[in-house]
Amino acid sequence: MSKRLRSSEVCADCSGPDPSWASVNRGTFICDECCSVHRSLGRHISQVRHLKHTPWPPTLLQMVETLYNNGANSIWEHSLLDPASIMSGRRKANPQDKVHPNKAEFIRAKYQMLAFVHRLPCRDDDSVTAKDLSKQLHSSVRTGNLETCLRLLSLGAQANFFHPEKGNTPLHVASKAGQILQAELLAVYGADPGTQDSSGKTPVDYARQGGHHELAERLVEIQYELTDRLAFYLCGRKPGDSVHFLSSLDLSELAKAAKKKLQSLSNHLFEELAMDVYDEVDRRETDAVWLATQNHSTLVTETTVVPFLPVNPEYSSTRNQGRQKLARFNAHEFATLVIDILSDAKRRQQGSPLSGSKGPRPRPGPQRSSANI
């Protein structure tokens, strides 16, 4: 971490001391027990990272720390702050509660059902509400107020919203203003650094023109997150500062040719498969960190293991079944699949570029969550 956790910091879900994990998209720190529940929900609900044993881009960690320190947890527990909630018997979990069912039920209600989030007045047309929220987000990202933007995203604002009058997206605005932490938050929620404005310029262009070189470099990293992470998983190394996997590694030496079945997939289906493999890499790597940090404690039980990717209700049953089958691949089989994915990604980029070859940016939103590539 960029700084040592202070003793005053507690788990956002049960108030237990010394949280050692973060939920990146929720802007919270959580303890081991609560993290075990988060992991079972899936990355479309909560993207967890260990605070000390997982590599962090510095500004991504700074973004989460800022949200946590500025009270982002109140977004997810808004109604619980009302004294009337105590009278109704509703309360958050506490450290003494059992993981199952007490903490698990609370965490699912909090993040999966969004049971405690402030609700807007009912409108006849939800799309109008989403558009209004997205316009507010478009305006808010020019400032440093991360909590306001997270609140808007929690209510349904779209990180990739293209403003019809302004001719650009929230990420363009944040990049022009040099708001690197806002850019991190938008990227976590699905903003695409490769999206062009009405003049054909990307957020990377905006950052460079504004002299925000650190932000421009970070946006390029986000663009290539999928292939860079798969390469790191495969080879144990990451490309240099400005040279990324697709342009720096000759995969023909690693794989003779991508499988015919893989090559026959449409770009859309290939993007989905690549994103699913990315999620499986994340599951396997998080599992490794989880097991290494638990020291064979009582937490390492069947109820805390995540044996395969959790179901994402936004995906078809066929896709969810395919995602879960990835867990059956042994290390060698999975490495071969990763090689094939990277090889075909390179081929497609050189031939007919993928519209979404810029890396997965899961966008957990209010019950319409999906991971975008």
TrEMBL record:
Region of interest: Disordered: 347-373
ANK repeats: 166-198
CDD domains, per database record: ArfGap_GIT2 (cd08847)
Any one GO molecular-function label of the UniProt entry: zinc ion binding
Pfam families membership: Ank_2, ArfGap, GIT_SHD
Domain Arf-GAP stretches: 1-124
GO CC annotations, alphabetized: presynapse
Alphabetical keyword list: ANK repeat, Metal-binding, Zinc, Zinc-finger
Key word Metal-binding present: yes
PROSITE patterns: ANK_REP_REGION, ANK_REPEAT, ARFGAP
A Gene Ontology biological process term: synaptic vesicle recycling
Transmembrane parts of this sequence: none
Signal peptide: none
PANTHER family: ARF GTPASE-ACTIVATING PROTEIN GIT2 (PTHR46097:SF4), G PROTEIN-COUPLED RECEPTOR KINASE INTERACTING ARFGAP (PTHR46097)
Name of this chain's protein: GIT ArfGAP 2
Gene name tied to this protein: GIT2
